[in-house]
Amino acid sequence: MLSPLPAITAFDPDATDGPTVARHLDFADYAAEVPTHVHRKGQMILALHGAVTCTAADQLWIVPPNCGIWIPGGTVHSARATPNARLSYLFVEPGAARLPDHCCALSVTPMIGAMIDRLTMEGASYRPDSHAARLARVLLDELAAMPHQRFNLPVSANPKISAIADALTSKPSDRATQAEWAKRVAMSERSLSRLLVRETGLTFGHWRQQMHLVIALRELAGGASVQAVAAELGYGSVNAFITMFQKALGTTPARFFSSRREKQA
């Protein structure tokens, strides 16, 4: 049996110089891993169902439902989708919109989602005076006004931090202390503490909690139960996990995803 192809083989967004081009992707048809790549156009990634994590600009990003990750053109990035992920991609020509020059997570309204869905029905080279072109201009204006969300984890090219991030991503239940991690990467605890704050802006405890939040959002959006996610992250009880989630996002996991499903309806 042949291995599924990576999603980047589906189409080339830079094959046209039009202001925007939109596509839907169902990851039942593609490999979960999207390898490191880069393109001229900026890219907005939205999750219609399931979730995807992206690595770009020394950040690990989660794309839960009703949010999007904006990746400016020329930014090297990679991604991993949950098996049930259905995504919308919106590619934007440089200079076509007042979108940030840095990666960020944006709220996405049902209207924006509907406009992107409509653009997926268009070819890559619609006329500048067409209905699709007018729709694209309104869409880009709306996107530029959307509030930012915190669904990212600062990482680093520093090999010490990269080693810890890779280990914790592979085994998020590891509850080793900062002192224990310092020994593992052959540093003093004080040096590791300073390095983390300098490279990520967060203390070790806050950095690991944010990593747990990113992983939790991905797994919950992928269909995992709260109990399974709490166990995967090494929490002693489901209540302890829910408390962490509520402190970070102001609501429980059940209410978080329920409110997003209501927005999609």
Automatic annotation (TrEMBL):
Residues 162-259 form the HTH araC/xylS-type domain. CDD domains: cupin_NimR-like_N. Keywords: DNA-binding, Repressor, Transcription, Transcription regulation. InterPro entries: AraC-bd, Homeodomain-like_sf, HTH_AraC, RmlC-like_jellyroll, RmlC_Cupin_sf. Pfam families: AraC_binding (PF02311), HTH_18 (PF12833). One of its GO terms (molecular function) is DNA-binding transcription factor activity. It comes from the Bacteria. The keyword Transcription regulation applies. This is AraC family transcriptional regulator. It comes from Sphingomonas ginsenosidimutans.
